[in-house]
Amino acid sequence: REPYLGNPQATIAVLNKYGFTFQKKFGQNFLIDPHVLDKIIRAAEITEDDFVLEIGPGMGTMTQYLAYAAREVYAVEIDKSLIPILEDTLSDYDNVTVINEDILKVDIAKLAEEKNGGRPIKVVANLPYYITTPIIMGLFESHVPVESITVMVQKEVADRMQVGPGTKDYGALSLAVQYYAKPYIVANVPPNCFMPRPKVGSAVIRLTRHAETPVQVDDEKLLFQIIRASFNQRRKTLANGLKNYEGLSFEKETIEAAIAECGFSPSVRGEALSLEEFAKLANVLGRAK
Ligand code: SAM
């Protein structure tokens, strides 16, 4: 059956039928715009071969679109009052499994193994903004087999994921995302596409996982510690940032020598360095350990 949710009338009808009240603590803003939904499905390149994990299905609006396009959909919703609603709105789709769980507690690697023979899965979500970063970084860092993540996030967060050095939005999130994936902003989505309307603008971003990371480092953990240290105190020079960071214990001289060996200015700031340059520094410092 073709999706029928995703417009204001159908959404209101379901809300009224179940007397559902939105919960702020779960970041509930439901999509009510079919054009945006179409765009997300197209950007995610869902085909009938795909196993899709949806995080936070809400009342099942995007789930209907996903179920219509994919082989199988697995939707994880934390709010138990939405479960009977989902049973109703998804009753015409026999390729959807809904579970009532916190996504941060789901073993996604196991899921991919059981449901998709260990092949990379696609993740699609209109994420509650407060857990965007832990979810995305968790998926990447745990090396779960994921082919792409197509998500609705706060516009500002989408910008941060996508930019390079020399812009104010550039930071640890940009580098972490770009180490693992190629970001592409699919669409900006204004507040009136949701019910209730969020206070901020949103954007759909697609993160396509690199087959191979664009830089090679001997120690991934060290790379990310260095990145975090450099942006921890933005106004400080890179050398000072690295010296003052708790997680790192390099001597001042070692840090200065490594910066010089990389060919960076002694007064360089972390925000000026590209991913390649951070990788170079991580490899030089790693050898000094
Ligand atoms: N996908 C729906 C849509 O587009 O209309 C709903 C999107 S709404 C922004 C986010 C959804 O994620 C809500 O249904 C909320 O209850 C759910 N959610 C929030 N935190 C969650 C978590 N930790 N695990 C799973 N679902 C969560």
From TrEMBL:
Domain Ribosomal RNA adenine methylase transferase N-terminal: 36-211
Main location: cytoplasm
Catalytic reaction list: adenosine(1518)/adenosine(1519) in 16S rRNA + 4 S-adenosyl-L-methionine = N(6)-dimethyladenosine(1518)/N(6)-dimethyladenosine(1519) in 16S rRNA + 4 S-adenosyl-L-homocysteine + 4 H(+)
Enzyme class: transferase
PROSITE patterns: RRNA_A_DIMETH, SAM_RNA_A_N6_MT
Presence of keyword Cytoplasm: yes
GO cellular component: a single term: cytosol
Keyword Lyase: no
Record's subcellular location: Cytoplasm
Gene3D superfamilies xrefs: Ribosomal RNA adenine dimethylase-like, domain 2, Vaccinia Virus protein VP39
Superkingdom: Bacteria
CDD domains assigned: AdoMet_MTases
GO MF annotations, alphabetized: 16S rRNA (adenine(1518)-N(6)/adenine(1519)-N(6))-dimethyltransferase activity; RNA binding
SMART domains on file: rADc
EC number: 2.1.1.182
Residues where S-adenosyl-L-methionine binds: 29, 31, 56, 77, 102, 126
UniProtKB keywords: Cytoplasm, Methyltransferase, RNA-binding, rRNA processing, S-adenosyl-L-methionine, Transferase
Family: Belongs to the class I-like SAM-binding methyltransferase superfamily. rRNA adenine N(6)-methyltransferase family. RsmA subfamily.
HAMAP family: 16SrRNA_methyltr_A
Role summary: Specifically dimethylates two adjacent adenosines (A1518 and A1519) in the loop of a conserved hairpin near the 3'-end of 16S rRNA in the 30S particle. May play a critical role in biogenesis of 30S subunits.
The protein, known as: Ribosomal RNA small subunit methyltransferase A
Taxonomic source organism: Oliverpabstia intestinalis
Organism lineage: Bacteria, Bacillati, Bacillota, Clostridia, Lachnospirales
Gene: rsmA
